[in-house]
Recover the amino acids of this structure.
């Protein structure tokens, strides 16, 4: 469904992605793990069109994303819960969710979709008229994810969705991700919590300073000695 | 207890003292004499109400122009220095339309009304397109450049448009002369509303028959009603419509807006179109109200509206409206009780004081962005 081939992305002179190739098949959860600064967020930003690759190709269902501006990529069904949450601080929770549905032509099921988001995150329903900027960090994280879901994306990019959440909520988020996937959403997941990520993902890629050093099924990665040492904290 | 007391801010104290010193000690020498002003108000309190009316009317126009500054700043954090000059072009466009359609010579109310409506439409459209063109030519390529670059580009645009205004004013077939006003390049903008209502047999001063020694003219009412209608329309547009929401989203987080499918370039163009259109409407309103047109009028209007936008909280639309009325009142009282020469200085001093003591303005930044 989504395929990156030899993608190079720069921030000025900083060579952040040094030839990333990866693939996400229809219906999969694929996870990207790697330490700080490895280029995980940059990969998601590049897919989304917020950063333009200097070379390489990104293809979604036969469409070359790297040639399109970010807003057109969104209309093709790519949505993201980004690093730093990026919610709109002076818009209400409701307005933030409405903005999530901006790309959709068909809004007949809008009310049901909002209710669906509220059923996943009841906390958001309690805060419906509150301004995004006044939410707690964890609530903002839920809002960012709810907003991405409102687009009804073909592929959902999640950048550390458990960031700043209490342990109980982290489990809940992973349950939600799994459920969304079972409902048919393809997911590319970036997580600090590599153990959790690998336990729900089908496949994974290990990223190090802008390069993919390993890719395998989630199960094999979990048992890989190097992965255990570097990312799972196993001695 | 002592230790929890806030440290005394000497720098601010010194600046405030300096301002007070200028106002009370140097002021009287050049005409800013508080006791004299006080005596004038006491002798004729009705005059105060008169200046209030003038202030509100001019404030309404300033508010409309201020919206253009504040919307553009809100979305791309650029002070569009050419905005005041776009308004000046609005004055000339209106005058030219009124002239070419023969409205200026007409005594026929129907013809005058049609002429005015046409002038409004043409001025709004022309200024909207002009403003969006300025963005396209002078700012778009510099969107990711250091802040100073588009600012300098904006000042350059301002000079260019002022000179276009100067040339425009010199074309007698576009801008006819009616007697002379202050300078050679200063033209009279005929009092079409006065002519219109006189031809209908109305008294232009609505309070004429009441015996109160005040002038509340039809011009005041029309300017205020039109301004309030435009502001309400804009407010609803920004709050309710799809494009309005996209504009707010873009202003609050541009990357997030892109990510959700908002075409940033179009949103920015739309912002300039709306800001320019409002300046065009303000141009016609100001021409009809103040009855002058000259190429440099965008400077004073620009200074006042920009200050109004900052006073209200730059980027905040409601703040821009509030600031507009406040600056209109300040300018009117300064013109009336002090001297018109003082007005620009006072407005500029206000700007400096806000930037020093409350850079977020009256209504700015009510809810900050959390981590
Ligand atoms: N805006 C930027 N300007 C310059 N360099 C950047 C920028 N954003 C990221 N980088 C650099 O690009 C590299 C990859 O960063 P990225 O944010 O993709 O890492 P990450 O894997 O998401 O890390 P983390 O786990 O800390 O979120 C880093 O070396 C980082 O310093
Ligand atoms: Mg990251």
């Amino acid at each position: 469904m989504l395929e990156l081939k030899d993608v190079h992305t720069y921030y000025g002179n900083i060579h952040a992605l040094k030839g990333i190739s990866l693939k996400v098949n229809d219906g999969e959860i694929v996870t990207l793990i790697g330490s700080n600064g490895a280029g995980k967020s940059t990969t998601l930003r590049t897919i989304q069109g917020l950063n333009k690759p200097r070379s390489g190709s990104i293809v979604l269902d036969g469409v070359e994303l790297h040639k399109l501006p970010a807003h057109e990529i969104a209309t093709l069904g790519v949505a993201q819960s980004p690093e730093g949450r990026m919610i709109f601080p002076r818009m209400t929770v409701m307005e933030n969710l409405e903005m999530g549905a901006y790309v959709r032509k068909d809004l007949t099921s809008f009310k049901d979709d909002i209710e669906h988001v509220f059923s996943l995150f009841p906390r958001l329903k309690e805060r419906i008229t509150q301004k995004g900027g006044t939410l707690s960090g964890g609530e903002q994280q839920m809002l960012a994810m709810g907003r991405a879901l409102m687009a009804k994306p073909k592929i959902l990019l999640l950048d550390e969705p458990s960031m700043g959440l209490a342990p109980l909520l982290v489990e809940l988020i992973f349950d939600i991700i799994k459920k969304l996937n079972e409902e048919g959403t393809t997911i590319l997941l970036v997580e600090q919590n590599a153990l959790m990520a690998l336990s729900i993902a089908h496949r994974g890629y290990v990223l190090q300073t802008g390069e993919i050093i390993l890719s395998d099924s989630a199960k094999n990665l979990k048992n890989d000695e190097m992965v255990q040492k570097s990312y799972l904290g196993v001695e | 207890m002592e230790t929890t007391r806030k440290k005394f801010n000497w720098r601010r104290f010194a600046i405030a003292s300096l301002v007070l010193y200028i106002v009370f000690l140097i002021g009287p020498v050049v005409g800013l004499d508080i006791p004299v002003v006080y005596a004038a108000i006491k002798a004729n309190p009705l005059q105060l109400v008169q200046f209030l009316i003038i202030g509100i009317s001019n404030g309404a126009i300033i508010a409309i122009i201020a919206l253009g500054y504040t919307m553009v700043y809100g979305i791309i954090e650029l002070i569009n220095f050419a905005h005041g000059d776009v308004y000046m072009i609005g004055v000339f466009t209106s005058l030219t339309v009124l002239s070419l359609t023969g409205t200026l010579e007409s005594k026929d109310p129907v013809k005058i009304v049609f002429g005015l409506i046409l002038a409004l439409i043409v001025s709004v459209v022309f200024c909207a397109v002009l403003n969006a063109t300025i963005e396209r030519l002078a700012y778009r390529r510099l969107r990711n450049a250091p802040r100073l670059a588009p600012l300098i580009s904006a000042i350059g645009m301002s000079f260019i448009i002022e000179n276009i205004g100067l040339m425009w004013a010199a074309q007698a077939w576009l801008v006819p002369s009616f007697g002379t006003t202050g300078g050679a390049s200063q033209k009279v903008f005929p009092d079409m509303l006065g002519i219109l209502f006189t031809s209908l047999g109305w008294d232009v001063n609505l309070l004429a028959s009441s015996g109160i020694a005040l002038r509340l003219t039809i011009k005041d009412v029309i300017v205020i009603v039109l301004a309030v209608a435009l502001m309400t329309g804009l407010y609803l547009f920004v709050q309710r419509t799809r494009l309005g929401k996209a504009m707010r989203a873009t202003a609050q987080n541009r990357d997030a807006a892109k990510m959700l499918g908002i075409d940033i370039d179009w949103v920015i163009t739309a912002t300039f179109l709306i800001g320019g259109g409002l300046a065009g409407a303000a141009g016609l309103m100001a021409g009809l109200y103040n009855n002058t047109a000259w190429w440099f009028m965008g400077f004073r209007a620009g200074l006042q509206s920009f200050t109004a936008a900052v006073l209200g909280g730059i980027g905040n639309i409601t703040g821009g409206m509030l600031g507009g009325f406040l600056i209109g009142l300040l300018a009117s009282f300064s013109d009336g009780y002090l001297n018109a020469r003082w007005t620009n200085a006072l407005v500029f001093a206000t700007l400096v004081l806000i930037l020093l003591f409350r850079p977020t303005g009256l209504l700015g930044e009510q809810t900050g962005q959390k981590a």
The longest helix of chain A spans residues 167-182. The domain at 1-77+153-235 of chain A is CATH 3.40.50.300 (Rossmann fold). Chain A touches chain B through 32 residues (CB under 8 Å). The mean pLDDT of chain A is 94.
